Amino acid sequence: MRDDWHANRTDGWKDYWKNDDTHPSAPYATFHCMEITEKDSSEIEVDVIIENKFKLIVNGVHITTFFASPVELRELAVGFLLCEGLLTSPDELNSIEFSEGTITCDTKVPGLRLVQWKQLQESEDFKSLTESMTSIVSDVYFNKDVIFSVMEYFRKQARSWRRTGGTHSSIVCDHEGDIISFCEDVSRSCSIDKAVGKAALCGVDLDNCALMTTGRLSSVIVGKAVRAGFPLIASKAAPVSDAIKLAEHAGITLVAFARKPDLYVYTRTQRVR
């Protein structure tokens, strides 16, 4: 596969990436800019990722505001609610409606669960965060070659990233490496929410799957994986200290710097062979 224009351009401007298949709803727009190189300068056309704002309303309550790519909004909402522990299953969702800049969900979520969630968000206390987690108990394991193959899938399939350099990608896969869902988004958190939502809406049991992503592993990202029930989360990028502490407390395997031929397993190492 050829290098991406924004990642490696030592030989000057190339437009091969514009030959990729596109869709009318593709989440990027074309802009002109001045390219200045060691040799010369010229005006070029580039594709730039689109970021929009969306309010999420749940049972009449404003829960959060996303800054996300304007595609797969149903998956985004469902995945967010699962990753935040507000839904335990898509079956708890009665309806979902979309209007300009707003996603409105009617759910079976008890009012107390919403109150407790908002209190946890407002506390911003790491101890409260860890104590709110249910521990992951799973005997499933993943071969390191499965992890590497999924990381290679990112490079091949992340078309919005190839065109813009402005997205993160996330994947839900099973223990054999079969891809269940793949999503790109301008936000690393939203790419995870979308991938989880897409898998859950297909009726997949996440307890035997892995969540893999291209972004840095923060405590927020690991918290999403734990609440959704994943036994393993992996990334090409680095973890932060609180993410490792949270992963150990919650019993999830955390893999980072997964770049063939090496990877680092920080917690619950028995799940990687």
How would you summarize the topology of this molecule?
Blueprint: E1 28-36, E2 41-49, E3 52-58, E4 61-68, H1 73-83, E5 93-99, E6 102-107, H2 111-123, H3 126-131, H4 144-157, H5 159-164, E7 168-174, E8 179-185, H6 188-201, E9 209-213, H7 219-228, E10 232-235, H8 241-250, E11 253-259, E12 262-265
N-end to C-end Cα span: 28 Å
Spatial order of the strands forming the largest sheet: 8-7-9-10-11-12
CATH architecture descriptor text of the largest domain? 3-Layer(aba) Sandwich
**Major β-sheet annotation:** 6 strands, mixed
Structural class: alpha/beta
Q: Which percent range fits the helix content?
A: 25-40%
- Spans with pLDDT under 50 lasting ≥5 residues? 9-13
Percent of residues in beta strands? 25-35%
| CATH classification, class level of the largest domain | Alpha Beta
Tell the overall outline: globular
CATH topology of the largest domain: Cytidine Deaminase, domain 2
Mean pLDDT: 89
> In the CATH hierarchy, what is the superfamily of the largest domain?
Cytidine Deaminase, domain 2
Q: Could you say how many structural domains there are in total?
A: 2
Radius of gyration: 19 Å
What is the ordering of alpha helices and beta strands?
EEEEHEEHHHHEEHEHEHEE
Got a strand count? 12
